[in-house]
Write a structure and sequence with these properties.
- By secondary structure, this protein is α/β, with parallel strands linked by helices.
- Helices cover 64% and strands 12% of the residues.
- The protein binds adenosine-5'-triphosphate (ATP) and magnesium ion (MG).
- The site of adenosine-5'-triphosphate has 13 residues, from helix 12.
Length: 590
């Protein structure tokens, strides 16, 4: 059964409350300040009413008690201001702490989430959930804790004091009030779906801007700008539309409640006048009552305004908190601290990203420690996918991978990843100094270690020519070439020196010389001059670079169609020989 939007909202509210709870003390403090400031502002009309009663007419003014009333009034006004200020501080603090926690959980869920979740959601949208949506929650909490609290206290207090002055008038006011609340409830229910839509479209907008900013060179190259503008414009317009609908809907609340409040005011005035004519009420009482009736209107309007804000916040909260609930990738592995030796066996493995569309089919492979395995094949044949499975980014649908004879699903993911050093197809640089980038996997590495790794990766010359050497701040954007990025990634792996290695070579953008350098650096890693040979997997596009591999796998449409050494495969005259000769005659294997 589908949940109604009210049920969904209260579920989100419940989840949000879990985050507010640890900071409940601050909320209570805010509430206390709200009560005090509301009580002070409630007493002001009473004091004014009394003052009116001390001014009976010309020559009949009681100055002494009047003066005390005036001082009292001043004290009340100061109290209102001070406690309102304190209330805001407490509420802001509670809100920021709550949102910080929700953000923290959202982020840590993101970093442990299955890759399929990240791949399946827009990256900009995920980022929006941690930024704009989280901020919206904080706005909601502040408004809820300040205006909602004072509003409720004022409404209750006003009623109580009015009853004291004249129960009949109070009763009339109380009877008409629910109308106003009912109207705002109806409107709020109707507008929730627009607020949810608003949050969602806002995420999309974020996503689109990020995509365009991230690939501005492509945008320019393909003359995509007008289409980008159009597509952005559509989303922008959609955001305007649901934003408008949401505010339009909720803006109905204010006029309708105001109308009802004006009605309440009129009724109180007329009834007060009638009682006064009968001599049952003093002029001061009427003054107090009318001030109350007026004061009564304000918090109700405010409350309804807050309800709008809370709607937006709840919709945003759902998006942020959904993030925090993403389950980490399942890991039933029990082997934790083992250093893997580099023996890998794959038996009858099948894998698909989308069910029913297998990308790898019935793969069998045995790799002894110290073997350098090269994987070649047409683009899209599943090379990177095979590597994703070796790294346990994904698990096989059927069949097994064994590390040193242990079923891979029994080895914890973190343990598998510690065993591999990888340089991926889209090698990754984060914003930071070159040194930090190289020492990513070993932050406590010494200066000498970092330099030695850079030297071994043949990137030291380039780094030294940078304006600040190892302290130059680089990022994943422009200013550093694909090949240089890969070399920095190789240096990163060199520093950690894991027992198994993966190199998924960038398809293009690398010139032959850099490619050779990457290859040499990688060879040095795999087969250190005085050390044990490592197990390595190399995805190579230029076959000349993998001639010396111990085992070459030729893949086609997710299957291994040929395997053997370079010489064996050449003499067999199959797919590999064909590929190699094609590249050779094209002069690629210089
Ligand atoms: P290249 O030489 O271009 O790097 P590849 O052999 O590494 O190619 P893979 O990246 O393994 O190819 O992709 C194999 C197939 O799986 C492709 O058809 C691709 O479209 C598909 N694929 C890759 N990643 C995903 C994903 N996250 N979700 C769904 N399908 C995917
Ligand atoms: Mg690939």
């Amino acid at each position: 059964m589908k949940k109604t939007s009210a049920e969904k909202q209260s579920a989100t509210l419940g989840r949000l409350m879990k985050y507010v709870k640890p900071h409940a003390l601050l909320v209570v403090a805010a509430f206390f300040c709200a009560v005090v400031s509301a009580a002070a502002s409630l007493f002001a009309p009473v004091v004014i009413g009394e003052s009116v009663n001390y001014i009976m007419g010309a020559g009949a003014v009681y100055y002494k008690p009047l003066a005390t009333r005036i001082v009292l009034l001043a004290v009340l006004i100061v109290a209102v201001l001070v406690f309102q200020w304190l209330m805001n501080i407490f509420a802001q603090r509670a809100a920021h702490l709550t949102v910080r926690d929700a953000r923290r959980d959202g982020f840590s869920a993101l970093v442990t989430a299955p890759l399929s979740y990240i791949d399946g959601n827009g990256h900009g949208d995920l980022a929006a959930r941690l930024s704009v949506d989280a901020d919206q929650i904080s706005d909601g909490i502040v408004q809820g804790a300040t205006q909602l609290f004072t509003g409720i206290v004022t409404v209750i207090g006003t009623l109580a004091l009015m009853i004291r002055i004249n129960p009949w008038i109070a009763l009339a006011v109380a009877a008409l009030t629910p109308l106003s609340l009912f109207v705002s409830f109806l409107v709020a229910r109707g507008s929730h779906k627009y607020f949810s839509a608003q949050s969602k479209v806002r995420g999309e907008l974020y996503q689109k801007s990020e995509e365009i900013i991230g690939s501005r060179a492509l945008v320019a190259a393909y003359g995509y700008a007008p289409r980008a503008e159009q597509s952005f414009g559509e989303t922008n317009e959609a955001l305007r539309r649901c934003g408008f609908k949401a505010t339009f809907y909720s803006s109905l609340v204010n006029p309708s409640t105001r109308l009802i409040n004006a009605l309440v005011y009129a009724v109180a005035a007329v009834m007060g006048a009638v009682f006064a004519i009968d001599g049952k009420m003093s002029a001061g009482d009427i003054a107090t009552l009318l001030l109350f009736a007026n004061q009564f209107a304000r918090p109700i309007n405010e409350i309804t305004g807050v309800i709008t804000e809370l709607q937006t916040s709840l919709a945003a909260a759902k998006r942020t908190l959904d993030l925090a609930e993403v389950k980490p990738q399942q890991d039933s592995g029990t082997v934790k601290d083992k250093t893997l030796g580099g023996d890998i066996a794959i038996t009858d493995m099948t894998f698909s990203y989308t069910p029913g569309k297998p990308i790898l089919k019935n793969l069998n492979l045995a790799v002894k420690p110290g073997t350098m395995v090269a994987i070649v094949g047409r683009t899209g044949c599943g090379k990177t996918t095979l590597i994703n499975l070796l790294m346990r980014f994904y698990d096989p649908d059927s069949g097994k991978i064994y590390f040193d004879g242990i079923d891979s699903t029994d080895v914890q993911r973190s343990c598998v990843r510690k065993g591999f050093g990888m340089v991926l197809q889209d090698s990754w640089i984060f914003k930071g100094t070159v040194r930090e980038n190289i020492a990513y996997g070993k932050p406590d590495a010494s200066e000498d270690e970092v330099k030695a790794a850079a030297k071994a990766a043949h990137i030291d010359g380039f780094i030294e020519r940078l304006p600040n050497g190892y302290d130059t701040v680089i990022d994943d954007g422009d200013g550093i070439s694909q090949g240089q990025k890969q070399l920095i990634n190789i240096a990163r792996v060199m520093l950690v020196n894991p027992p198994m290695l993966i190199l998924d070579e960038a398809t293009s953008n690398i010139d032959t010389r850099t490619e050779r350098r990457v290859q040499e650096a990688f060879d040095a890693l795999l087969r250190p001059e005085n050390g044990v040979k490592k197990t390595g997997f190399v995805v190579a596009h230029r076959l000349s670079t993998i001639k010396n591999a111990d085992l070459i796998l030729v893949m086609d449409s997710g299957e291994i169609v040929e395997r053997g050494t370079h010489d064996e495969l050449l003499s067999r005259g199959g797919v590999y020989a064909e590929l190699y000769n094609a590249q050779f005659s094209a002069g690629l294997s210089v």
